[in-house]
UniProtKB/TrEMBL annotation:
Keywords: Cytoplasm, Hydrolase, RNA-binding, tRNA-binding. Homodimer. An aminoacyl-tRNA editing enzyme that deacylates mischarged D-aminoacyl-tRNAs. Also deacylates mischarged glycyl-tRNA(Ala), protecting cells against glycine mischarging by AlaRS. Acts via tRNA-based rather than protein-based catalysis; rejects L-amino acids rather than detecting D-amino acids in the active site. By recycling D-aminoacyl-tRNA to D-amino acids and free tRNA molecules, this enzyme counteracts the toxicity associated with the formation of D-aminoacyl-tRNA entities in vivo and helps enforce protein L-homochirality. This is D-aminoacyl-tRNA deacylase.
Amino acid sequence: MRALLQRVSSARVRVGNEVTGEIGPGLLVLLGVSRTDQEADLQLLVDKIINLRIFEDDQGKMNLSVQDVGGAILVVSQFTLYADCRKGRRPSFLDAAPPAMGEDFYERFIAALRAKGMTVATGRFGASMAVELVNDGPVTIMLDTADWQKQG
């Protein structure tokens, strides 16, 4: 699984004219699922995201997690995180999970965040969405569970 995290002061997602999810301070998580992802990847990613210390403490150091600061999380499905652009000029998405699998992991990811006590807003899986955000910092971090597996 891949997640692009952006620390935000606010973010929202629209499908057409409808706002499907909106948060104040917290994290925007663009989430991609690969064909080879397992339940362990989902749990690793949830734990990493809610505990990652990327919010500033009283001394201005990134020492607090989204959980520590009481922030919310906006999760938006993003299969294009698995774009392979090594050949030609048109990205290949063969590594991305098929839609049914992607949606299942997306829904379970959201449920796992909520089970940890997080306030979670969402986009709509498979929809054309407009995402608006105010990146705080800016802080943008890419997480990939495949990288963690390589490290053992």
